[in-house]
Amino acid sequence: MTLDAKRTVRVSKTLSRVLRHDPASVGVTLDEAGWVAVDTLLAALARHGTRISRAELDHVVETNNKRRFAYSEDGSAIRASQGHSVAVDLGLAATVPPPALYHGTTGRNLDAIYREGLRPMARQDVHLSADTETAVRVGSRHGRPVLLLVDAAAMAAAGHEFRVSANGVWLTDRVPAEFLSLLA
């Protein structure tokens, strides 16, 4: 099935809102790992005026360029890969990070970042990228991007834990300012 780009974005945004931030808005409950049965989700969305077919859901999960969503092994449940503001435990093991990771932001955030480091804000974790292109794209969502280099090797050596989500986003609870430097 192929959806037009507008419908794909609309479905993806709806799924992000429900699976990452507000499952109660459609009357579903995520389990402790963030999963909800696909049939339960689709029925709840329909009851709240958003009809999404299983084929449309499959299309969004398979084609989302950020791989924001994942199915359980048997395909009966779905969850967001990361980015939750609701409490979930994705079950991600601590992983040794690459020496450098990146974070995209905007210049207006730099003063606070230099004072406080990177904090998760409304999310459970700080999100980091393994490549500069992704970090720049993330920073661009909020204005002119600024790119920060995270000395992940030094952070790991200092005892900070890293995890990597199913879609390749690196997660950590915070990044102290001393591990950051401005790239661009």
TrEMBL record:
<dbReference type="GO" id="GO:0006388">
    <property type="term" value="P:tRNA splicing, via endonucleolytic cleavage and ligation"/>
</dbReference>
<dbReference type="Pfam" id="PF01885">
    <property type="entry name" value="PTS_2-RNA"/>
</dbReference>
<protein>
    <recommendedName>
        <fullName>Probable RNA 2'-phosphotransferase</fullName>
        <ecNumber>2.7.1.-</ecNumber>
    </recommendedName>
</protein>
<dbReference type="InterPro" id="IPR002745">
    <property type="entry name" value="Ptrans_KptA/Tpt1"/>
</dbReference>
<dbReference type="InterPro" id="IPR022928">
    <property type="entry name" value="RNA_2'-PTrans_KptA"/>
</dbReference>
<dbReference type="InterPro" id="IPR042080">
    <property type="entry name" value="RNA_2'-PTrans_N"/>
</dbReference>
<dbReference type="GO" id="GO:0003950">
    <property type="term" value="F:NAD+ poly-ADP-ribosyltransferase activity"/>
</dbReference>
<dbReference type="InterPro" id="IPR042081">
    <property type="entry name" value="RNA_2'-PTrans_C"/>
</dbReference>
<keyword id="KW-0520">NAD</keyword>
<comment type="similarity">
    <text>Belongs to the KptA/TPT1 family.</text>
</comment>
<keyword id="KW-0808">Transferase</keyword>
<comment type="function">
    <text>Removes the 2'-phosphate from RNA via an intermediate in which the phosphate is ADP-ribosylated by NAD followed by a presumed transesterification to release the RNA and generate ADP-ribose 1''-2''-cyclic phosphate (APPR&gt;P). May function as an ADP-ribosylase.</text>
</comment>
<dbReference type="GO" id="GO:0000215">
    <property type="term" value="F:tRNA 2'-phosphotransferase activity"/>
</dbReference>
